[in-house]
Amino acid sequence: MATQQLNIAAPRSGDIDPKYLRKSASPGSNREMVKWLFMRISGPILMVLIFVHLFSNLMVGDGVHGLNFGLVAGKWASPLWQIWDLVMLWLAMIHGTIGVSTIIDDYTNKDRTRVGFKVALYLASIAIIVLGTLVIFTFEPCMTDAAGNLLDNSPSFCFNQ
């Protein structure tokens, strides 16, 4: 049985098939460096944000049994937790979008396919960021009717005010 030898071009040797080369940002652009730097800085920040979030929700108070509407309503009554969750949302979505965008660049050969995937990715990311931000800042656990009276299905802590 004869063995075939596979010739693979050395990296940066210039022997790369041009159909696999993509047009990158303009030579004077720092876009790739900025994305690389953002990923390296946002990763550790996200780790702190996420672990504090998990600790405060799962370990403090009643633990996992205390996870309910009232816990979220109580946390989001504080501007600290609103900003904390907002920063976590924005950083996670931008970090994830850049990561998935890189994967799309690596695994799509046709420009049309790449553009389609990226448009869908960016639209979904923008929608999640906008909707998440709206939820965080417009969340109102104590719903009232037109006359300003609390609704019957409001959480119990609304009636104690």
UniProtKB/TrEMBL annotation:
The keyword Chloroplast does not apply. CDD domains: SQR_TypeA_SdhD_like. SUPFAM superfamilies: Fumarate reductase respiratory complex transmembrane subunits (SSF81343). It is found in: Membrane. The keyword Transmembrane helix applies. Pfam families: Sdh_cyt. It comes from the Bacteria. The chain crosses the membrane at residues 37-60, 80-98, 119-139. Its main location: membrane. Keywords: Heme, Iron, Membrane, Metal-binding, Transmembrane, Transmembrane helix. Gene3D superfamilies: Fumarate reductase/succinate dehydrogenase, transmembrane subunit. Signal peptide: none annotated. This is Succinate dehydrogenase, hydrophobic membrane anchor protein. It comes from Yaniella flava. The lineage of its organism: Bacteria, Bacillati, Actinomycetota, Actinomycetes, Micrococcales.
